[in-house]
Specification:
Blueprint: H1 2-18, E1 46-57, E2 60-68, E3 78-84, E4 90-97, E5 100-101, E6 108-119, E7 132-143, E8 147-157, E9 165-166, E10 181-188, E11 193-200, E12 205-211, E13 218-224, E14 234-242, E15 250-260, E16 263-276, E17 281-283, E18 291-292, E19 300-304, E20 316-320, E21 335-336, E22 343-350, E23 353-360, E24 368-371, E25 382-390, E26 396-403, E27 406-413, E28 418-422, E29 438-442, E30 449-457, E31 460-465, E32 470-475, E33 483-488, E34 492-500
Parallel strand pairs: 1-21
Antiparallel strand pairs: 1-2, 2-3, 3-4, 5-6, 6-7, 7-8, 8-9, 10-11, 11-12, 12-13, 14-15, 15-16, 16-17, 16-18, 19-20, 20-22, 22-23, 24-34, 25-30, 25-34, 26-27, 26-33, 27-28, 28-29, 30-31, 31-32
The structure holds beta-D-fructofuranose (FRU).
Length: 505
């Protein structure tokens, strides 16, 4: 068995170094399989989960992602890699970090989630030039007879992320715990130091560490045990966001993955608003009922980009558009899972307090195709709709997106004050008993109107309600064929639409 594994690893090494960057954009069959998203990122083949190491460097946005090079279910976790100049058109690059086997001990190590920073002043001493890219990831080690250990390790690249070397003194942080993972590192200007956040998932704790060289870390404070603790915590992140309606003001947000607003049978993301005092995060109101990032079933492990230039100053999050409850069973092949549209984050002061606001990145309008003149026959299944519902007497009003015999309903219920998506009739729902669902989020009309900005991309629907006050990301697996968009309910519903061009062909 062990021999077989060693063989497999040797093969990985060989095939990674040989793997070519595909240039298939003129091939009309490329990225045209059933359910294949056309403007969301998905790997050519095989399984992906969390986005990892999101970073901007020298004109390129890097997306690393949890990846199984051998199949389209979870396993053999490695870091896949792609780059983009606009966060929409992605170029696949060879695997950045592969699962590996220690020939001396027989221990195998998977590369779990983590972060990438640009080490601007060569603080690590690992750069051959003035700067380089440093990845800090969870080394998930399977020790024979001893079970699992998770510690943090480092790798670096001196060629814009094209090739990576593991640091020879790994691990860089080990607290001898089975579950201790998902480092996020960022540069904290006021302290002139690197700050790292990690989770101890089963204790609902986020731990803070500090370093000046990325190699040696000192423990700072801890945050946790508040908010939603019904499911383990994963993938923490922390960033300062501008307040949309208070010019010049900012507040810190700590987000993490864990349980879902619909309950612990599903995974989702929550966030806290407060302050970072240099050693720990303090929530403004520790008793605040949980605040969730997205109310669809398919938005998890979202993290934000590091190193976006100051002049730009956007905070951009990408999430994994899937759910652990049924993720390994969704009916797609040869790939499984995709990433959300990149979202620009901010805060808004509302009557109930500060809330997260999410917008699709503005550049998405650059891939708009024709205006849709005839909503009863949209040839492709990738398009964008702006919907306004004049909430008056209708109990439920909205739109139906129909493909042959399947349909998805999106709308507003004025009795429960909820935006909802109903995917119970959306096509293939048979692969898991928990997939068919109606998901909802409380939203109040503004001037009597509910606005829904909807992106439909073959098997992913993203809804931005009321200028980003609430979002829903959901997968659907509709029948093939053109989409018929129609309205339902007694309220007046106006719909404007655009086709969206493929970013893959
Ligand atoms: C979150 C997660 C992380 C872990 C990774 C493993 O989806 O469980 O906590 O690092 O996936 O693939």
């Amino acid at each position: 068995m062990k021999l077989l594994l060693v063989g497999l690893f040797a093969l990985t090494l060989f095939s990674c170094s040989k793997s070519k960057i595909p240039d298939m954009t003129n091939d009309s069959t490329y990225y045209s399989e059933k359910y294949r998203p056309q403007f969301h990122f998905s790997p050519e083949k095989n399984w992906t989960n969390d986005p990892n190491g999101l970073v901007y460097y020298d004109g390129e946005y890097h997306l690393f992602y949890q990846y199984n090079p051998y199949g389209n279910t979870w396993g053999h976790m490695s870091w896949g890699h792609a780059v983009s100049k606009d966060l929409l058109h992605w170029e696949h690059l060879p695997i950045a970090l592969s699962e590996y086997l220690d020939p001396a001990t027989g221990d195998s190590t998977m590369i779990f989630s983590g972060t990438v920073v640009v080490d601007k002043n060569n603080s690590s001493g690992l750069c051959t030039g003035k700067d380089c890219m440093v990845a800090i990831y969870t080394s998930h080690v399977h020790k024979d007879n001893q079970g699992l250990v998770q510690h943090q390790s480092m790798a670096y690249s001196n060629d814009k992320g094209r090739t990576w070397k593991r640091y020879n003194k790994n691990p860089i942080l080990d607290i001898q715990r089975k579950d201790f993972r998902d480092p996020k590192v960022f540069w904290h200007e006021p302290q002139q130091a690197w700050i790292m956040l990690l989770v101890i998932p089963d204790l609902f704790k986020v731990r803070f560490y500090k370093s000046t060289n990325l190699k040696e870390w000192t423990q700072l404070g801890e945050f946790g045990d508040i908010g939603d603790t019904t499911r383990i915590w994963e993938c923490p992140d922390m960033y300062e966001l501008p307040i949309e309606n208070e010019a010049g003001k900012k507040k810190w947000v700590l987000s993490l993955s864990g349980s879902h607003p619909a309950g612990p049978a599903f995974v989702g993301m929550q966030y806290f608003i407060g302050e970072f005092d240099g050693t720990t995060f303090k929530a403004d109101d520790p008793k605040q009922p949980p605040l969730y990032v997205d109310y669809g079933k398919d938005f998890y492990a979202g993290i934000v980009f590091n190193n976006i230039p100051k002049e730009d100053d956007r905070t951009i999050m990408i999430g994994w558009a899937n759910n652990w409850t049924y993720g390994n069973q969704i009916p797609t092949s040869p790939w499984r899972s995709a990433m959300s549209i990149p979202r620009e984050l901010s805060l808004k002061k509302m009557a109930k307090g500060f809330r997260l606001i999410q917008h699709p990145i503005k550049a998405i309008s650059s891939i708009r195709g024709e205006d849709i003149k005839d909503l009863s026959s949209i040839l492709k299944q990738s398009f964008e709709l702006e919907i306004a519902i004049n909430v008056s007497e209708g109990k439920e009003s909205g739109v139906i997106l129909k493909n042959t015999d399947s349909y998805t309903k999106i709308g507003y219920n004025s009795s429960s004050h909820e935006v909802f998506i109903n995917r119970t009739m959306s096509g293939d729902v048979s692969f898991n008993k928990d997939f068919a669902s109606i998901d909802r989020v409380k939203t109040e009309p503004t001037d009597g109107k509910i606005k829904l900005h909807v992106f439909f991309d073959y098997s992913i629907i993203e809804i931005f309600a009321n200028d980003g006050e609430a979002t829903i990301c959901e997968q659907v697996f509709p029948d093939p064929g053109p989409t018929i968009v129609s309205s339902f309910g007694a309220d007046s519903v106006t719909i404007t639409g655009w086709e969206i061009k493929s970013t893959w062909r």
